[in-house]
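Lab notebook page, bench 4
Experiment: in silico fold of construct C2
Operator: M.H.
Input chain length: 287 residues
Purpose: comparison with the prior construct
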Amino acid sequence: MRSIRNRRLRWAAIPIALVTTITLAGCTQEQLQGWLPGNPNVTNHTSSIIGLWVTSWIVLLAVGVITWGLIIWAAVVYRRRKGQTGLPAQLRYNLPIEIFYTIVPLILVIGFFAFTARDQAQIEEPTKNPDVQIEVFGKRWAWDFNYVTDNAYSAGVQADFNPDGTINTDNLPVLVLPIDKTIEIKVESRDVIHSFWIVDFLYKKDMIPGKTNYMYFTPTELGTYQGKCAELCGEYHSLMLFTVKVVSDADYKAYIAEQKAAGFEGQIGADYNVNQNLPGNGSSSEG
């Protein structure tokens, strides 16, 4: 009887394994990276972020499949048969099973925490002597970029609509970054809470009035990327967009020279901040 049951299980496992193999082989790159935007080569951090995300989903799906399978198995095996009456034998507890479903989730939680903490510490580790330092001011509803290292700036304006109702992206604020250079971005807000998000970089940082935050990365792939505010900040939050261009070092230097030639030399500071009475800025009166 047992040999017949084992033979059935083996025959059932073959098509399941075949379907799984074909499904995985036919996955697109988008599916392999868990439908996250961009790709693993955009910055020095995107590969580890995608790896953590996809691995987490694989583990959780495996746990889900096992759980669903046990539920279905129990419902089928222990169903009431024809002619049976009354209740089956009741068990108060099963010590091995209780230990199992306590220890395994604990191991999973500790594992997820450990890998997340490791990757987060690596991403948030300050870069010593970055090649390029940039200061970003978020404002309702646009962006100002200070190229601190190169003493130039770019003041952005809010996006607008085309006559057909679509967003006009021709005049969005543009942040230009040199490829393969370590970048430090200092983010600040001129008014309310914003969030600086470069979508394909899988990285965003909150911009809180009176507080300075930093983000560190190295862009490793040439291209044009979308940026936006990721924190609801008012009526035109959806129009608080910007563009990021990762260019060669020569093109970056040419852009900085163009900005200076156009009169955008120096830095645009906190003078335009709406909140001028925040603690620590010397503007608040003392009672």
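Observations: The helical segments are 2-25, 29-32, 46-77, 95-124, 249-261. The chain has two domains: 2-79+92-124, 132-269.
Next step: discuss at group meeting.
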